[in-house]
Design a protein that fits this description.
With about 325 residues, the chain is mainly alpha-helical. It contains 17 helices and no strands. The chain folds into two domains: about 130 residues, Cytochrome Bc1 Complex, Chain D, domain 2 (Orthogonal Bundle), CATH 1.10.760; about 140 residues, Cytochrome Bc1 Complex, Chain D, domain 2, CATH 1.10.760. It is globular, with a radius of gyration of 24 Å.
Length: about 325
């Protein structure tokens, strides 16, 4: 015990010193650029090591699946471009006045790796900078979409970036959902097949944070009730899209799986869908499959009106049945 006493005393003094350091005022919190470089090094090192620790054990999914880069590009153009710039335009002036300055990712992404560290940075953000975490911690699929896009960013010129972000569209909705809500990107839902009432309820759920999607929460949180009602009326056209020919999924659609307590999908989602329920015929197949997987993984926490019902329904569906249903309803 006597031999350990110096280590114990050293540990106590070290902890006391760390506790007193903030009280000394030596750790500058000034945003002026001419601060001691050692402080920048100290905090940057702590941030980098924190990101590395959070990335350990992260499984990297395939990042070349259809629509991933396009979906990430839409969020980047809507939220990130003002601070990080793009091949089309530099960051806005307010971002250049921040300390530390957000990195210009067109130049920096080539040195930013591996994928798991990029994922951890986007998902959790970086404290003491302007970099926020993803708006919801439940949508890793959206964060991986952003990773897939950022990996392509150094190779994009202005034209390629414009095509990827549908930059010619005159509003954020059209960039991802198509000019008339008819769908434009794999995995993004089409809107024109829904009713105004369903779209209005969905937008309000995203805005209020009761339905989980980092991209849609960012888009909807700036909307007023009047703007939501107008968008719902514009895009909710109730377009009829003939379903695909009969497949093995039809039995579930028409009759459900009584032995697994799975009701018929059409009892809520047919062409005369119940108020507040989405129509499915003609919806993007990748989007439908992803939503089924979210209900399976998150249950009612996936959020949105009636989420608790779907959380019960998907318990009786296996992966192959969910894929068959998505393909049956999809385009």
């Amino acid at each position: 015990m006597t031999k350990l006493r110096p280590f114990f005393i050293g540990g106590v003094l070290g902890a006391l010193g760390l506790g007193l350091l903030p009280l000394s005022g030596l750790l500058s919190s000034s945003a002026e650029p001419s601060q001691p470089p050692v402080l920048d090094w100290y905090f940057n090192l702590a941030a980098q090591q924190s990101i590395t620790l959070r990335s350990l054990g992260v499984d990297v999914p395939p990042l070349d699946r259809p629509g991933m880069a396009e979906r990430g590009a839409g969020h980047y153009e809507m939220v990130c471009v003002t601070c990080h710039g793009s091949p089309v335009a530099p960051p806005e002036q307010f971002a250049r006045n921040l300390s530390p300055q957000p990195p210009q990712l067109v130049q920096r992404m080539a040195q930013w790796h591996p994928e798991a560290r990029i994922f951890a940075t986007i998902k959790h953000g970086i404290r003491r900078t302007a970099m926020p975490g993803w708006p919801t911690q439940m949508r890793d699929d959206e964060v991986w979409d952003m990773v897939a896009f950022l990996l392509t960013l150094p190779e994009l010129d202005a034209d390629a970036y414009g095509r990827l972000t549908s930059g010619t569209a005159d509003n954020h909705c059209a960039r991802c959902h198509g000019e008339n809500g008819e769908g434009a990107i794999p995995g993004i839902p089409r809107l024109d097949i829904q009713s105004p009432a369903y779209l209005e309820a969905a937008l309000k759920a995203f805005r209020d944070g009761t339905r989980q999607s980092g991209t849609m929460m960012a888009a909807a949180r700036v909307l007023t009730d009047a703007q939501i009602e107008e968008l719902a009326q514009d895009y909710g056209r109730g377009t009829n899209v003939p379903a695909a020919s009969e497949t093995t999924a039809e039995a579930i659609v028409r009759h459900g799986l009584p032995d697994r307590d799975v009701p018929a999908c059409d009892s809520c989602h047919d062409d005369n869908a119940r108020l507040g329920y989405p129509r499915l015929a003609g919806q993007d197949a990748d989007y439908l499959l992803n939503q089924l997987k979210l209900f399976k993984a998150l249950g009612a926490e996936r959020g949105g009106p009636n989420a608790h019902i779907m959380a019960q329904v998907v318990r009786g569906l296996d992966e192959a049945q969910m894929e068959a249903l998505a393909e049956w309803y999809g385009r």
